[in-house]
Amino acid sequence: MIVPVMLAFFAGMVTPLIVFGIRRRWGKYFMEYLQDSLDAFGNGDYSLRMYEYLRRGFNREIANSFNQMTSRIETVVDELSAERDVLEHILHNMTTGIIYITRGGTIEMVNEAAQLMFRKPLEHWTKQDHWSLFRNYHLGAAIDNALLFGTPWQSELNLRDTQTVLIRLVPVPSKSKTAMHGEVAFDVLMLCNDVTEFRRLERMRSEFVANVSHELKTPIAAIRGFAETLLDDEAPAEVQKQFLQTIYDESNRMNALVSDLLELSRLEAEEHRIQLLTVPLMDVVERALDRLTQVALARQIQLELEPFEPVNVWAEDDLLLQVFLNLMSNAIHYTPSGGKVTIRCEILVDRVKVHVIDTGIGIAPEHLDRLFERFYRVNRDRSRASGGTGLGLSIVKHIVTALGGEVGVESEVGKGSDFWFTLSRMSRLPEDKSLSMGGE
Ligand SMILES: Nc1ncnc2c1ncn2[C@@H]1O[C@H](COP(=O)(O)OP(=O)(O)OP(=O)(O)O)[C@@H](O)[C@H]1O
Ligand SMILES: [Mg+2]
Predict the structure, then answer these.
(1) Ligand nearest to the CA of 375
(2) Total-model pTM
(3) Membrane-spanning regions, if any (predicted)?
(4) Interatomic CA distance for residues 391 and 400, integer angstroms
(5) Number of neighbouring beta carbons within 10 Å of residue 229
(6) Looking at per-residue confidence, does 374 or 305 come out higher?
(7) Does the beta carbon of 371 lie inside 6 Å of ligand 1?
């Protein structure tokens, strides 16, 4: 009897104690679990969520709040890192060089364009002082000024003699915690744009204008001089006729120059509007031969066309004709009488290479590189005396490039020259199917 009473007493007294103890233990586990979760979260594991244990002592509300918080923060962090990725892509693929300098004067960020412009790899930039990087007094002083006083600056800088870079310094008010109370601090955003090509074009343009004026001045001076003499003097009829002839020749020269210039500017303006069509090469060659046979005959020069298989090229026939006329008239012009001018069309797999070969005076190697430049003439006086403007070859190059081809020349003084250009070939002949692309 006494035993069940004791058992009941024992159960009644001890069970609550045990339950209380277990609850406390579970409460302790929960606190440890929460602590671990917070630690992991603090270390950047934003995807962490707390499991819900169906135990007493497990505080579901706290776990839920924790989970809500981590889920929200995970979303925000994802959004921010996606935004950061986009910005990084933009920065790294920009052609503008970007360098971020912090208020202490050290480089915080540099993009690839800037690394390339200054020819320094990333390791040379990170946390470096700007003075040790740029080593340019004006730029260094301007950066310091921008850092200290927030003064913006802009100037061009020549790098390695070959590159001109436009640099802009944009001061950015710094929120750095280390800024002294009341002191305004600035970071500096340095933007660098490569303006080399722009400056080169500007220089070319002004050189071109100077050249044109110079070329026009000579015939104008001659015409004026002879006209004045004719007005003043009672010269014999024969001399008068000679002067008038000179005036006529000079005006022709001016006319040729002006037409060439107009042609060049028309080509430049219409380059993007050229209609490329399938043109039978032979038709154009024949038109050119028709136009120049008489000229060659008059100068006692043999004009020969080497036979070639019919082929179509991708071109604009009037422009292509102009290329032939320019090269062939040069060949006739710079070949002494008794010489020979040959047209040869090499048919390659995907291109046609046209040669205009003469047995003329030839060109010394030092001139070959510059021959296709505007107004370039090997022998200025000789070319000028014969009415040459020095624009023919630059027109040729312009047209061939616009048609997608290349031009070139091989020459030997006293032996002759071989001016060549390529064109895209259109219809392939059946036997070419066995040839590999790009082969000749
Ligand atoms: N076949 C050639 N043989 C030798 N020299 C040549 C030949 N073709 C061109 N040249 C040289 O190249 C220079 C430039 O040729 P280009 O055709 O551009 O000008 P040009 O013949 O002087 O004048 P134009 O603009 O009236 O043609 C010539 O002045 C000449 O010195
Ligand atoms: Mg010429």
Answers:
(1) 1
(2) 0.62
(3) 6-22
(4) 14
(5) 13
(6) 305
(7) yes
Residue 382 CB neighbour total at 10 angstroms: 13
* Pocket perturbation via mutation, ligand 1, pick of 257, 301, 330 by most ligand atoms within 8 A of CB: 330
Q: What is the pLDDT of residue 28?
A: 78
158 shares a domain with 56:
no
Together in a domain, 302 and 437? yes
Per-residue pLDDT tens digits for 369-393: 999 998 888 877 666 666 678 899 9
Domain boundary among 254, 273, 292: 273
Protein residue with its CA nearest to atom 13 in ligand 1: 377
| Mean of all residue pLDDT scores within the chain | 86
Find the 399 Cα to ligand 2 centroid distance in Å: 14
255 and 179 within one domain: no
Is residue 390 in contact with ligand 1, taking CB distance under 6 Å?
A: yes
- CA 16 – CA 20 distance, rounded (Å): 6
- Cβ(359) to ligand 1 under 6 A? no
273: CA distance to ligand 1 center in Å?
Answer: 28
Question: How far from the centroid of its chain's Cα atoms is residue 55's Cα?
Answer: 69
Contact between residue 311 and residue 384 where contact means Cβ atoms under 8 Å apart? no
Say if ligand 1 is within 6 A of residue 102 CB: no
230 and 176 within one domain: no
Find out whether the beta carbon of 215 lies less than 6 Å from any atom of ligand 1.
no
CATH of the domain at 308: 3.30.565.10
Q: 300 pLDDT exceeds 70?
A: yes
Residue 301 and residue 426 share a domain: yes
Q: What is the CATH number of the domain that holds 242?
A: 1.10.287.130
Domain total in the chain? 4
Specify whether 440 is located in the same domain as 336.
Answer: yes
Cβ of residue 339 lying under 6 Å from some atom of ligand 1: no
Lateral strand order in the sheet of 163-173: 107-110, 97-101, 186-194, 163-173, 153-159
Pocket test residue of 393, 413, 418, 420 for ligand 1, highest count of atoms within 8 A of CB: 393
Q: Residue 147 sits in which domain range?
A: 94-194
Answer whether residue 234 shows pLDDT above 90. no
> Is residue 391 in contact with ligand 1, taking CB distance under 6 Å?
yes
Q: Are residues 188 and 202 in the same domain?
A: no
Domain ends where: 194, 225, 249? 194
Whether 389 is in the pocket of ligand 1, judged by its Cβ within 6 Å, is yes
Do 169 and 237 belong to one domain? no
Q: What is the C-alpha to C-alpha distance for residues 224 and 10, in angstroms, rounded to an integer?
A: 137
What's 436's DSSP letter? Answer: P
**Closest to 66 measured CA to CA, from 99, 31, 98, 100:** 31
